Amino acid sequence: MVKPTRLTQELIDDYIARGYWDTISIADTLKRNARQYPHREAIVDSKTRFTWSELKQIADRVATGLLEMGIKRDQAIVVQVPSSTTTLVLLMACHQAGIVTCFPPMTFRHREMRYVLKTLRAAGVVTVWKDKRFDFFTMIKEIASDVPQLNLVWVVDDNIPQGALPFTLLREKTLGGEDCRERLQKYAFDPFEVSVIVLSSGTTGVPKLIEHTGASLKAAGWGVVERAKLTKEDVFGIIAPLSGGPGLQTWWAALQLGAKVCLLEHFTPEEALELIERERVTFLSAVPTQLIRMLKEANVKQYELSSLKVIRTGAAALDASLAKEAEARLNCKVVIAGGSQETHSFAQSGVDDPQDKRLQTVGKPFPGNEIKIVNDQKEEVPVGRVGELLVRGAATSSGYYENPIATLSAWGEFGGGGWFRTGDLAKVDEEGYLILVGRKKGMILRGGQNIYPREIEDLLVSHPKVKQAAVVGIPDSIMGERACACVTVVAGQEFAFEEMTSFLRQNGLAIHKLPERLEVLQELPSLADGQKVDRLLLTQKIVKKLKTAGKV
Fold it and tell me: What percent of the chain clears pLDDT 70, i.e. is strictly above it?
């Protein structure tokens, strides 16, 4: 058993007593769906469709194959493949076989993958061979010498390189009847064991390995269901990556309902809209960048999108005016979540919230979660005052994998008394809605006045020419720091400094918050997860450029 780092039996009993957790495992939930909805479609991608009974059968095959090829209960496998039915088949198979799973983003390379594989002591890897830009299999083979336990590497492509195992060996495994079912029942994870490891973005180097139990995964899923008023009749579209965060959280919601999930392996705005049209998606899980690109790069009028009722987004900033535009043009409601890999969603707006609350806040705390806003002395601040956001609750992580020191540092203490320090600056309004202001480390201090980058970024991306925006602090000998806006623009457009400042003034931004420099870039550097801007690297590049020009 991989024991959760910070959970105590007292805390487990408390969450069960309050109805946030139960004793039903992920494996039992899959079994129930296969029994109750055998012919309903469960998961779909561009190549494959499985009903719930088919998903259960193929997960049984893969689980049995993994065990028979020598992977032991409580060992880990690492899966680096595009979001597809293969991802979810492996996830369900490993829950049944008692094998810990970890899903690195496709953007992870040697440095991050070596650290993940070594820390987990991974016994196996499932990957693709290569794409147009990178050879994933060769990377794993180069790392394997540093990971003694790593003996098995499966490739999911039709063409298999020498030295790899075809994933079809697992998918086509012949089952051994009742003995096989009894074995899987014996090996399956219970709800209070660590079963999934998700990864941080790695803002200071290597990623953190974040534990989740079946109980916390289910609690995170139920929160999505409750806020969006979802049922088993809904069709879930997941275009957010399944490497963690909003993508996987949406899967846990659909699994518990027995609803259909449609996956997009490679995102483009047009393919996302085609998925909604083709599969009659009613609920879409997307990160803000994807939603912005759909609005700014695609002609949404070309698609029949009448099925779409709700879009759930989060993980990065989304300006309220853009969210409102999405509602108008896509004829649906947008709900916004705030969260982290450690907390899933600590809060989310709901479909029944008034539009201003739904789009200008991240709603109220998730069912089973609590929040607290504190000052630098860890004292709770009054309503409406900005402070650091602390979170605890049933949907949160059980700690950092085999790292009690880091866990204690982040939560303060083990058990129910621990509060996770998010690093987010936030405030709560008089009605209890949570408003995220920015990151504590990202705040710019200009001449003694605080500038929160998110406020400016939200306004910038609402400009029709701007696709992405990041505001960073540049050292200044007089003011301490000055704000620099870095943007990417829509193809064929130009965006000048005067145009930026005029637009921000028209939208009521205070004079001291106006960026004093504009950098228009081809792309913004991203963290290894591919979803968030690497602000440190961006700042370093700008400072280097200014030093070379003799301006710093």
Answer: 96
Angle (CA) 76-196-43 rounded to 5° is 105
Of 369, 349, 535, the C-alpha closest to 429 is: 349
Q: Which residues pair with 312 in a beta bridge?
A: 285, 335
Average pLDDT, integer, range 418-432? 94
Which residues partner with 335 through β-bridges? Answer: 312
Q: Is 43 in the same domain as 172?
A: yes
Q: What is the pLDDT of residue 149?
A: 92
Question: 3-state class of 58 per DSSP?
Answer: helix
46 and 99 belong to one structural domain: yes
pLDDT tens digits for 481-502?
899 999 999 999 999 999 999 9
167: containing domain: 24-189
Contact partners, residue 465, CB within 8 Å, separation at least 6: 489, 490, 493, 494, 495
Asked if residue 397 belongs to a domain, the reply is: no
pLDDT tens digits, residue range 293-337?
899 899 999 999 999 999 999 856 677 888 999 999 999 999 999
Examine the domain organization and report whether 89 and 120 are in the same domain. yes
Report the CATH number that the domain containing residue 56 is assigned in CATH: 3.40.50.980
- What pLDDT digit, counting tens, does each position of 441-463 carry? 888 888 777 788 988 998 999 99
The confidence band for 51, taking pLDDT boundaries of 50, 70 and 90, is very high
Strand bridging mode 260-263 / 41-44: parallel
Q: Do 289 and 174 share a structural domain?
A: no
Domain holding 484: CATH number? 3.30.300.30
pLDDT, the chain, mean: 92
Between CA 323 and CA 320 the distance in angstroms is 5
Q: Please check whether residues 426 and 447 belong to one and the same domain.
A: no
Whole-angstrom distance, CA of residue 360 vs CA of residue 433: 9
Are residues 283 and 413 both part of a single domain? yes
The verdict on 221 and 86 lying in the same domain is no
In sign, the C-alpha dihedral spanning 298, 524, 316, 470 is: negative
The CATH code of the domain that includes 298 is 3.40.50.12780
Per-residue pLDDT averaged across 352-374, rounded?
A: 95
Element (H, E) at 481: strand 480-489
Residue 552 lies in a domain: no
Rounded-to-integer distance, Cα 266 and Cα 226, Å: 29
Q: 227 and 153, same structural domain?
A: no
Give me the number of domains the chain comprises: 3
How many residues does the structure list for the chain? 552
Res 317: pLDDT: 65
Closest to 57 in 3D by CA, of 195, 214, 171, 167: 171
Evaluate whether residue 29 is within a structural domain.
yes
- Domain membership of residue 208 (yes or no) is no
Cα gap 443→194, rounded to integer Å: 35
Give the separation between CA 539 and CA 535, rounded to whole angstroms: 6
Global confidence as pTM? 0.88
Distance of alpha carbon 395 from alpha carbon 220, whole angstroms: 5
